[in-house]
Amino acid sequence: MCGFFITGGEQHVRATKEGQEQLRIFEEQGLGDKKFFEGDEIGMADLAFGSLAWWLPVMSEIAGVKVIEAESFPRLHAWIQRFKEFPTIKETLPDRSALLTYFKDRRATFLALAKS
Questions:
Q1: Taking the domains of the chain in order of start, what are their residue ranges?
Q2: Which residue range or ranges hold the GST C-terminal domain (predicted)?
Q3: In sequence order, what are the residues at sequence separation of 6 or more whose Cβ sits closer than 8 angstroms to the Cβ of residue 114?
Q4: Mean local confidence (pLDDT), 61-73
Q5: Nearest C-alpha neighbor of 19 from the set 11, 103, 71
Q6: Whether domain 3-115 has CATH 1.20.1050.10
Q7: Could you give the count of Cα atoms lying within 13 Å of 94 in the half-sphere of its Cβ?
Q8: Which residues are registered as beta bridge partners of 36?
Q9: Which are the contacts of 1, defined by CB distance < 8 A and separation ≥ 6?
């Protein structure tokens, strides 16, 4: 799902589409019409996939793509918003600016390695 982040050019476009196909399955078969993956309350599946809510938008921003847009993934987008606003989760989220710095460095490393 993160191929868009570690590639450039034509591979970048293909990896973005492949990641979105995976997210579509995640949204339709995993989340469905539920508020959280296991129903109305956060459960183990939400916690297992919870990092998606915080790091994927940061990685997408750095890579210059919009992987999860509200129009394309309305249920998944809404889940991300609910998950991030859940009090216990909100209190423990890492600093966004630190993540931006970290992932900018990681992407630069990946792209440099791909060129060599």
A1: 3-115
A2: 1-111
A3: 6, 7, 8
A4: 91
A5: 11
A6: yes
A7: 14
A8: 39
A9: 19, 22, 23, 56
